[in-house]
Give the backbone structure.
Amino acid sequence: MIKKFQSNAEAIAAADQYLYGNHARMPIVMDKGDGCWVWDLDGHKYLDFVGGIAVNGLGHNHPAVVKALVDHASMLHCSNYYYNPSAIQVCKMIVENSCFEKVLFANSGAEANEGQIKLARKYAVDHGHPERYVVISMLKSFHGRTLATATATGQEIVHNPKWYSPLPEGFRYAEFNNLESVKEQLDDKVCAILTEPVQGEGGVRPATQEFLQGLRDICDERGILLMFDEVQVGSGRTGKLFAHQNYGVEPDTCSMAKALGSGVPIGAVCARGDAAKTLIPGTHGSTFAGGPLACGLAEATLDTMLNEGLLEHTVKTGEYFRAQLTEKLAKKYPNTVKEVRGMGMINGVELANNDIGPQIVNKCFERDVLINCTAGCVLRFIPPLVATQDEVDIVVKAIDDSMAELGCN
Ligand SMILES: *Cc1c(COP(=O)(O)O)cnc(C)c1O
């Protein structure tokens, strides 16, 4: 029998000895959760508005998730030589609630985006354009940490050529929300344009309507693919199954991951038109992808989102949240808060400088509230979609008190 850790301190001492140090972590050891609340090994309780980085859409310990876990306990895996019912149900639900015709499974966000990139290159070849292989992605984007997706990520800190050269060929960057900048990168080698409809890691930045529509028009004119990365903002985060449904602009392919499996790793590439026919047997696949456990959880997750009013709740709570951030913070601390923005339950507060963000995160932590700062100066809130207005109030008050304590104005 393994002896269980009894406290944060005991577990962290062992982590310092054994756990690879590639992540910077807060000094708590997560033990259990319920809804938006989590407990550490010392029994200390926190309100969690990081939500596993937008993964815990239904919150912790949701009855539908617990039931799906138990229901799938007798077969966790069966290989892609065979069908499993949950995988088919998930595809059916996604297709029936979107512009897409087919769904391909992966195991993570990076892997889903890797699938989109491979699909775009083969699509070009299939359509008589083997010279097309370049994917244009946006500066400040985030698409994953495999070599191809890190290279597609428009941040040098992620694909750092100093460490990871030679990077894969065929990636160019344009400025987000700037069509002219995209046009400057276009030539006969381009096979696809890839963007997040709302940049997540890049600082909670929604695309403009003109930008997404302009990308759609460019791709239609040139016969190249428009690919969206909805790993963070899909799966109900913005109050619709897909963020792009808020714009009415339909991509050819779109990735999903984070909240799709309520915490069990899963990714997906959704596709329509010829893009839904490109990857035939032998071209792409994965041992684990689309397995019964992950798909069982995705099935329960989507069923709850689509059929239990969770999307409507997300829209309402998101509107309330932004109103509170504006009223209680932006107006009170005009020299500290630059902008409040977001969509549904991905919301951000851009701060006037880079130093204050991490300090506010730490002050909120002292107040038992977990939030996160991204892109240097943007407080980002991606809590479980089940979060209530009362819970929003607790978070806004914690930030208000933290800002006051830090002497913000
Ligand atoms: C998190 C994220 C990814 C990477 O997903 P992983 O599951 O960590 O590989 C890709 N794109 C976006 C927009 C993300 O937020």
About this structure: The radius of gyration is 21 Å. The first strand starts at residue 30 and ends at 34. The pocket of pyridoxal-5'-phosphate is lined by residues 108-110, 113, 142-144, 196, 200-201, 229, 231-232, 257-258 (CB under 6 Å).
